[in-house]
């Protein structure tokens, strides 16, 4: 038989007689669609039906006879082959009949579309908002074209929330969810409430209240804008009561103690709390007291001169370049808001003094004469070494006291060890100043907590301090005195085997006390209040640092209420 061979595409179609006199129609074996029996149209339909279109929507149909410029796989022409095996293969859908008996059509577009339901969009929107809060990013980040483009590439068709949605709609929702999570963690536990004041970017007076746990976790409970209010002791008592009520209602925990700084009005507030026969343990921050001690023991005219030299070598371009060329370490400027920086400044100055002196001698014509005189002054160097010898043990004790896991009981031993270190200096003036700060910092609550701690057990307390602790316990909680006597004698229900270091270091003090049966619940609560009390209000200071990051000069339009939620989420979402 002469004539051109039939194109291989007809293997996928069935000929149907046409009503017209010319040509024929074709019916697709795959989907049952009918079309004009033209080879070019049949190839286009086959490529679409079998899912051969590219991502841009262009068909990868077979080029016309003789055309070899088409991209992608194609159905071969009759000139190449007439075998059905030469036609590009594709996974063929199941031909299960529909309930009506007609062939089921394949949903071709489903493989090209990422569907996002309303529930999935809500979850994605919330996660985008969490990312903004956790990274302290600006709300306008979600409207940035590059961020939107990245989201579209990751999930086509999904539109991220707007900056208004992140700021107004999702913020209260995420905040409430995180508060509930914190409530689940703190439920039934005894916490220490930290109170301290700060000024925000608008110079408005802010008081923060934090809940601090025995394990070192810090949660922002409340932020109070005290603008226009006198910070009297009466007002601070009302603030403390409101913070306690909010902590116990929102976080479902029990506030057992309050730690504050040592300002006069705050000290008066603590005294009023005791006069009202409150069951709370109130005391001042030991870290703040150690910082005051560091200022007490300063050597006159040393700090100013050393700071002058350090500032010159940090800010003068030539001196700074020569110092780096000599391989000097970083010089540190002391800051009042960052404790121990004076000790770090002196340490860096003394370690790099020889390099500073070499630069001053080799470039005396380029170095400021006043600076050169100070660097070459051996009396100043010896005085700086003497001051560093006083500040270094205080700095070590201060670092220990600032930890969120340093409790009231441990702070007593920190003070005792510092007394031994400063005693080695054999300086009566330093010893006298230490004793004054020690008496201000140590309260009967400190001594009683140290006495009841299963590890310390008052081992370093003097006889007078033991008597003061027991007198305080009999005056505040007379019912616990028999328990204290049995604890000291290690008699029932306290078993001697539980006092070994392997046991007391393996569990928390609260867990150790709860492991003994036969102790009244009210006595256990008193012990928990004392042993869960944190030594310092450093946790509140770290919240202020987070406030400085969130409520900054670049985000100065944030209100106090919204900034407080952002700070809470910033700390909660970054908590280990």
The major beta sheet can be summarized as: 5 strands, mixed
CATH topology of the largest domain: Nucleotidyltransferase, domain 5
Gap between N and C termini, in Å?
83 Å
Number of helices: 23
CATH architecture of the largest domain: 2-Layer Sandwich
- What is the number of beta strands? 8
Side-by-side strand order of the widest sheet: 6-5-4-7-8
Helix content: 40-55%
Q: So, the CATH homologous superfamily of the largest domain? A: Ribonuclease H-like superfamily/Ribonuclease H
Helix and strand composition category? alpha/beta
CATH class of the largest domain: Alpha Beta
Overall mean pLDDT stands at 86
Beta-strand proportion: 5-15%
């Amino acid at each position: 038989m002469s004539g051109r061979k039939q194109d291989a595409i007809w293997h996928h179609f069935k000929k149907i007689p046409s009503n017209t006199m010319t040509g024929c129609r074709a019916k697709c074996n795959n989907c049952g669609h009918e079309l004009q029996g033209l080879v070019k149209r049949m190839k286009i339909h086959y490529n679409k039906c079998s899912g051969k279109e590219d991502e841009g929507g262009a068909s990868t149909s077979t080029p016309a006879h003789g055309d070899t410029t088409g991209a992608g796989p194609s159905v071969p022409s009759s000139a190449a082959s007439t075998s059905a095996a030469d036609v590009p293969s594709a996974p063929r859908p199941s031909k299960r009949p529909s309930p009506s008996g007609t062939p089921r059509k394949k949903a071709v577009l489903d493989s090209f579309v990422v569907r996002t339901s309303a529930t999935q969009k809500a979850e994605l929107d919330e996660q985008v908002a969490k990312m903004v809060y956790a990274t302290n990013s600006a709300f306008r980040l979600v409207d940035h074209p590059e961020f939107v483009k990245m989201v579209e590439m990751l999930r086509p068709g999904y539109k991220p929330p707007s900056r208004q949605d992140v700021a107004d709609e999702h913020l209260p929702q995420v905040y409430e969810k995180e508060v509930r999570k914190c409530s689940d963690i703190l439920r039934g536990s005894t916490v220490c409430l930290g109170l301290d004041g700060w000024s925000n970017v608008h110079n408005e007076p802010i008081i923060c209240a934090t809940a601090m746990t025995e394990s070192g976790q810090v949660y922002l409970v409340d932020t109070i804008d005290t603008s226009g209010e006198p910070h009297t002791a009466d007002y601070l008592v009302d603030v403390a009561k409101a913070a306690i009520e909010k902590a116990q209602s929102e976080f479902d925990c029990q506030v057992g103690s309050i730690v504050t700084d040592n300002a006069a009005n705050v000290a008066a507030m603590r005294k009023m709390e005791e006069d009202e026969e409150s069951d709370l343990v109130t005391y001042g921050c030991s870290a703040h007291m150690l910082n005051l001690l560091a200022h007490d023991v300063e050597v006159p005219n040393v700090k100013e001169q050393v700071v002058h030299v350090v500032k010159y070598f940090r800010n003068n371009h030539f001196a700074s370049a020569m110092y780096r060329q000599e391989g000097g370490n970083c010089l540190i400027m002391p800051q009042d808001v960052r404790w121990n920086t004076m000790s770090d400044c002196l340490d860096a100055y003394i370690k790099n003094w020889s390099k500073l002196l070499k630069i001053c001698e080799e470039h005396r014509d380029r170095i400021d004469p006043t600076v050169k005189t100070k660097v070459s002054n051996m009396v100043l160097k010896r005085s700086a070494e003497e001051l560093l010898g006083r500040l270094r043990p205080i700095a070590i004790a201060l670092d220990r006291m600032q930890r969120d896991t340093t409790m009231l009981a441990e702070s007593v031993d920190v003070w005792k060890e510092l007394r031994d270190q400063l005693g080695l200096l054999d300086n009566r003036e330093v010893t006298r100043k230490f004793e004054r700060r020690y008496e201000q910092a140590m309260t009967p609550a400190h001594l009683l907590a140290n006495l009841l701690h299963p590890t310390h057990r008052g081992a370093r307390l003097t006889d007078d301090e033991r008597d003061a602790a027991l007198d305080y316990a009999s005056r505040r909680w007379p019912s616990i005195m028999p328990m204290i006597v049995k604890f000291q004698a290690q008699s029932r229900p306290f078993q001697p085997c539980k006092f070994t270091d392997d046991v007391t270091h393996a569990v928390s003090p609260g867990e150790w006390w709860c492991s003994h049966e036969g102790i009244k619940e009210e006595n256990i609560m008193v012990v928990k209040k004392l042993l869960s009390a944190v030594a310092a209000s450093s946790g509140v200071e770290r919240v202020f640092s987070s406030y400085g990051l969130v409520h900054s000069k670049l985000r100065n339009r944030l209100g106090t209420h919204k900034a407080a939620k952002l700070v809470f989420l910033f700390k909660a979402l970054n908590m280990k």
